[in-house]
Design a protein that fits this description.
single chain; 173 residues; mainly alpha; Rna Polymerase Sigma Factor, Chain: A; Arc Repressor Mutant, subunit A; 2 domains; globular
């Protein structure tokens, strides 16, 4: 498998993470491109897939932080982020409204909460992988994701979006 093919498998997840960090489609595309370029030109790459995936996300996060530093901005506030939802088409159902409601509330979360939701719930990283990427203990990741999910659910509370019920596994009473 070539490095190009290896990176391609992660592009959608990297883009989702970049979008959650930057809040702008064009900036997210630029971040993913910068991440891919840095990864392709790296002299050494991790061999196993979990380490490789975490490495890519770290490159992307560092690229974002480099941009923030260059722009002399310590942190993005919700007022500074330009929201541009993905193109969705109204088909008479509530899907569009649900997606829009979640995206609007997601952008209002503080950056560290947006970031943890993006890593765990959107990109699919494990708590341990997110902890390594963010350079924090696993317990910190667990408390951040819990807090971020609670904040998101509270913010969405009055909309049509509802928390999914937890299904019990067979054999567990």
């Amino acid at each position: 498998m070539t490095e190009h093919t290896r990176i391609e498998a992660y592009l959608p997840r990297l883009y989702g993470y970049a979008l959650s960090l930057a809040g702008d489609h064009h900036q997210a595309e630029d971040l993913v491109q910068e991440c891919a370029l840095r990864a392709l030109t790296a002299k050494n790459t991790p061999g196993d897939e979990p380490a490789y995936r975490a490495w890519l996300f770290r490159i992307l996060r560092n690229a974002f932080l480099d941009r923030v530093r260059r722009e002399r901005t310590a942190a993005l506030s919700a007022d500074e982020v330009n929201f541009a939802p993905d193109m969705e088409f109204w088909q008479g159902d509530e899907r569009f409204i649900t997606v829009l409601a979640v995206k609007l509330q997601m952008e209002k979360l503080p950056r560290r909460h947006r970031e943890i939701v993006a890593l765990i719930d959107i990109a699919g990283l494990s708590y341990a992988e997110a902890a390594v990427l963010l350079e924090v203990p696993v317990g910190t990741v667990m408390s951040r994701i819990s807090r971020a999910r609670r904040m998101l659910l509270e913010a969405i509370g009055s909309s049509n979006v509802r928390e999914l019920p937890v299904r019990k596994k067979k054999g567990i009473g």
